[in-house]
Amino acid sequence: MSVNAIINASNLDISKVSFGDIRISKNNGSKSVPIKYNGQNFQMKLPKIRYPMGVSVKETENGTNYTMLASLQGCDSYAKERAPPEAGEIGQMYNFLKDLEEKVIKTAVEKSASWFGRARKEDVLRDSMKSLVSPSVEKQGAEWVPNGKYPPSFRMKVPVYANDKGVPTVSMDAVDMANRPIVLTPENLEQAFPKRMEARFIVTPSIYVSGQGFGVTWRISYAQVSAQQRVTAAQMFEPEETAEEDKPAAVEVPTAEEDHEEQEQEEIRETPSAAAPVAPASPAPAKQARRRVATSAM
Whole-model pTM above 0.85? Predict the structure, then answer.
């Protein structure tokens, strides 16, 4: 039985990271590469981080995608320089992500024949890899360019997959800060993960590979969510943060990361889960009425 290595983001050592053999989905042929830590299945435990946009819901040709963008406070707004010591745990995580990106690129060069079907040069692979950390951007003329106005962001995916009966189901466990369980459904995700929330997540990474590009998908496995504080009028009128990955495309087409969905579902079914890191203490609180706040499009 596989064992998961759940490591605090502040304690990560890039030299202990390795990559498994490439896997090919039985259903759609998509490729993925598992990420290991000390030879075990790797899961990263994030510190308490702010999520200004809450859960982002995007409709695609392949279904609905649910993602979270962590605001990496104290790190380089343009996502280029390393974080200083005063950035704390978030800075340590940011630096690890930058190191991991370099290690993935170097490994992709060495194993390009296996991963991509032919040898590829490093500069080509750098251009085709989706960065693990993204700066905020704004539109200038016809282009979207980094603006340095907000901290860089780190993207994670909320795993929502069809169960054996074809019903969309949230494939993760969540509790509040008192360790009371939170029942998650696709319908209540925007209520459970609202704007300006704070949370601790444990995420499971894997590399996706296609002819067009490659990158790392971070799937949320466990969540501990802080109660939402009262929102002030000033917060309601704050400008929206826009990450580089949220730039609107001229034509919406299925991406390599979206094609990776079925491969992830297979891995969830085949890989035994680690015991949840937090135990429920009492029954879940009653659900609150769902409330939506209209915002401008990103």
Answer: no
